């Protein structure tokens, strides 16, 4: 048994999507939302104890449990909220191998970084 990081140290775990309509009609709103997300990520990294206490309260977990889970990946967080293209390609490769997605997906054609 292994984890993905054992084989792919760069693996995209989370993605934020925006509908094409939003990007075409209200790009400024999407940019402001992403900037808020970036500020939140930086605040969590700068104050992990406070963030863990808040997260534990929201998810009704013991603070120690939430903090342990959060700290496991905090060091590798992407604070500028840009898609990790290499990590995403690794993710897609695994899904292509198991037949979960078609092999002809063109990642660069699908991505617009804000």
Describe this protein's structure.
With 114 residues, the protein is mainly alpha-helical. The chain folds into 2 domains: 14-80, no CATH class; 83-114, no CATH class. Helices cover 62% and strands 0% of the residues. It has 7 helices and no strands. The longest helix is centred in the N-terminal third of the chain and has 20 residues, at 27-46. 3% of the residues are buried.
The fraction of residues in strands falls at under 5%
Q: List unreliable stretches of 5+ residues.
A: none
Q: Report the average pLDDT across residues.
A: 84
- Number of helical stretches of at least 4 residues: 7
Q: Which sequence of SSEs, written as H and E, runs from N to C? A: HHHHHHH
Sheet with the most strands, sense and barrel status? none
- Spatial gap, N to C terminus: 37 Å
* Shape by Cα distribution: flat
Q: Rg to the nearest angstrom?
A: 17 Å
Q: What class, by secondary structure content?
A: mainly alpha
**Count of β-strands:** 0
Number of domains: 2
Helix content: 55-70%
Q: What are the SSEs and their pairings?
A:
Layout: H1 4-7, H2 20-25, H3 27-46, H4 48-59, H5 63-74, H6 85-97, H7 107-110
Helix pairs in contact: 3-4, 4-5
């Amino acid at each position: 048994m292994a984890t993905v990081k054992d084989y792919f140290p760069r693996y995209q775990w989370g993605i934020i999507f925006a509908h094409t309509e939003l990007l075409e009609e209200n790009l400024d709103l999407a940019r402001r939302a992403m900037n808020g997300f970036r500020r939140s990520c930086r605040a969590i990294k700068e104050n992990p104890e406070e963030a863990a206490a808040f997260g534990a309260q929201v998810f009704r977990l013991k603070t120690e449990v939430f903090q342990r889970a959060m700290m496991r990946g905090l060091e590798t967080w992407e604070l500028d909220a840009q898609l990790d293209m290499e990590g995403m390609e690794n993710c897609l490769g695994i899904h292509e191998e198991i037949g979960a997605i078609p092999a002809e997906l063109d990642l660069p054609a699908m991505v617009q970084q804000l």
